[in-house]
Structure formats: C-alpha cells, structure tokens
Amino acid sequence: MKITRKTKLAKILQENPKAAQMLIEGGMHCIGCPMAMQESLEQGCLAHGMEDKDIDEIIDKLNNKKKK
Questions:
Q1: So what's the pLDDT on residue 28?
Q2: Could you tell me the pTM of the whole model?
Q3: Where in 1-68 does DSSP place strands (E)?
Q4: Distance CA 51, CA 34 (A)
Q5: What DSSP designation does 7 have?
Q6: pLDDT class for 29, splitting at 50, 70, 90?
Q7: Is 68 helix (H, G, I), strand (E, B) or coil?
Q8: Domain 9-67, what architecture?
Q9: Domain boundaries in the chain?
Q10: Which of 1, 8, 2 lies closest to 42, judged by CA?
C-alpha cells in the first residue's frame, strides 16, 4: 500500500504498526486517540500545525520505511 495524504491513520497503523513511532517523532502525539484514527494523514498533520513540506516528508519516510 502506498501512503498518501488521504490515507487514513488507522490504515497506516494497521499495515505498519511501527509507523506509530515515526508519526510521534514527527509531532503527531494523538496516535492513541480514537478520533485520530478516522482522520487522513493530511488532516492529522494539519491539526498539529504542520506545513505541506512537513507532510510530504512524513509521507516519504513512511513509504520508504515500508520498503525496507
């Protein structure tokens, strides 16, 4: 699965539980919140004040991590 801005946080964590640590390190400390699981990656990032370049960086890290 390729992660995009529209990928739901729940789907990301379901496919790759280790992604939680990357998201937390990126500033998304809401990973355990039930409401957060219904948000897209983009919605979660924007809610935490991240800019477009930050979102793209997280997406790149998540997608590259999955390949290893």
A1: 84
A2: 0.84
A3: none
A4: 23
A5: S
A6: confident
A7: coil
A8: Orthogonal Bundle (1.10)
A9: 9-67
A10: 8
